[in-house]
Amino acid sequence: MSGRVESILSTVGGTPAVRVNRLAPEGINLYVKVESFNPMGSVKDRLALGIIEEAEQSGALKPGQTVVEATSGNTGIGLAMVCAAKGYPLVVTMADSFSVERRRLMRFLGAKVVLTPASLKGTGMYQKAVELAETHGWFLARQFENEANARMHERTTGVEIMRDFPDGELDAWVTGYGTGGTLKGVAKVLRAESPGTKIVVCEPEVASLLASGEKQERGEGGSPAASHGAFTPHPMQGWTPDFISKLTEDAVDANYIDELKTIAGPDAMQCSRDLATKEGIFVGISGGATFAGALAYSRTLPEGSTVLCMLPDTGERYLSTPLFEHVVAEMDDEEKSLSDSTPTARYED
Ligand code: PMP
User: Tens-of-pLDDT digits for all 349 residues of the chain?
Assistant: First the structure.
């Protein structure tokens, strides 16, 4: 995206598919779709704009009405940008286990952040958002069930992928799922326009909800009625909540998933670090996790195959998380000896 535009909202989407040069298995054309190029640094800027503009058009969202949503962060940050640019107040509910910089970012953009106890997991923050909407007459964005989420990916992400990989060039597309909006929207386009493309879906090893085959209990409007039995906490923020969302289940029911991969937390972290140090591509933990799945799947493919992997957000959002655990503020021994190797401005601590 470059040039003169009328609003920051015009810069949502249109992210590049970047070739992976040093980490790709030999003979594989591996590309990554770098969603940190969105204005607030994540794939969720697309959903935020899609949900708000569809609700404006349908009349579900009135001028000046407050928007409320349960979000682990990126959706809240995207919504905060969209609401700021369009003049809607925003309230987000968020479990207190998610990274502190996410809350601060949303507040910086003018949103109110209502914390919920981590022990109540994703369902707790969701129920709080529903209650707030009902009590105060606010517009609930419902990212996990709202078709506008998947439709935005169909119109933007899916179209961009077909433009960049036309004529059945793409052998596989690899993604994780949170709301399942990316999965459902892009998969619909791929099935229609590139039926030979295999759709590979990744989930955490310790929360392999889809692989378990266990059904999700649902309440009103497709919202989750209980935590899924296969869920345990995992480090891939934004991936697999403690329930299978309606949009994700739709993708399963439509047979959009050709292959499921489970990813271990340490592999996700390592891939995120490798992308940074060996490719100069700076992404978060879910990006590392999706890349781990893309590498594993690529190794099963014949030479000359082309694979595209989603990288949902920037690594900058994870400075206070285990992703940065190995990075210390002080100089290590190698840095100290570099300092000592010349006489000027040597550092004594
Ligand atoms: N990774 C991160 C960091 C996210 O914030 C999200 C969105 N929750 C995803 C992956 C998954 O995207 P989707 O909601 O479209 O399934």
Answer: 679 999 999 999 999 999 999 999 999 999 999 999 999 999 999 999 999 999 999 999 999 999 999 987 899 999 999 999 999 999 999 988 877 888 899 999 999 999 999 998 877 888 899 999 999 999 999 999 999 999 999 999 999 999 999 999 999 999 999 999 999 999 999 999 999 999 999 999 999 999 999 999 998 889 888 889 999 999 999 999 899 999 999 999 999 999 999 999 999 999 999 999 999 999 999 999 999 999 999 999 999 999 999 999 999 999 989 999 999 989 999 999 999 999 999 988 6
Atom of ligand 1 nearest to the CA of 245: 16
**38 ligand 1 Cβ < 6 A:** no
Q: Ligand 1 centre from 155 Cα, in Å?
A: 17
* Upper half-sphere CA count for residue 40 (Cβ side, 13 Å): 27
Supply the residue whose CA is at minimum distance from atom 11 of ligand 1: 178
> Which atom number of ligand 1 is nearest to the Cα of residue 285?
3
Domains in the chain, start-ordered, CATH in brackets? 8-39+154-324 (3.40.50.1100), 44-140 (3.40.50.1100)
Question: Which residues share a beta bridge with 205?
Answer: none
66 CA distance to ligand 1 middle (Å):
24
User: In this structure, what DSSP letter does residue 218 have?
Assistant: B
Cβ contact 123:144 at 8 Å: no
> Residue 232 has which token pair?
């345990």
Cβ of 84: how many Cβ atoms within 10 Å? 16
- Atom 1, ligand 1: residue with shortest CA distance: 238
Q: What is the distance in A from the centroid of ligand 1 to the CA of 342?
A: 47
Strand-strand pairing, 17-19 and 29-34? antiparallel
Active-site annotation holds for 223: no
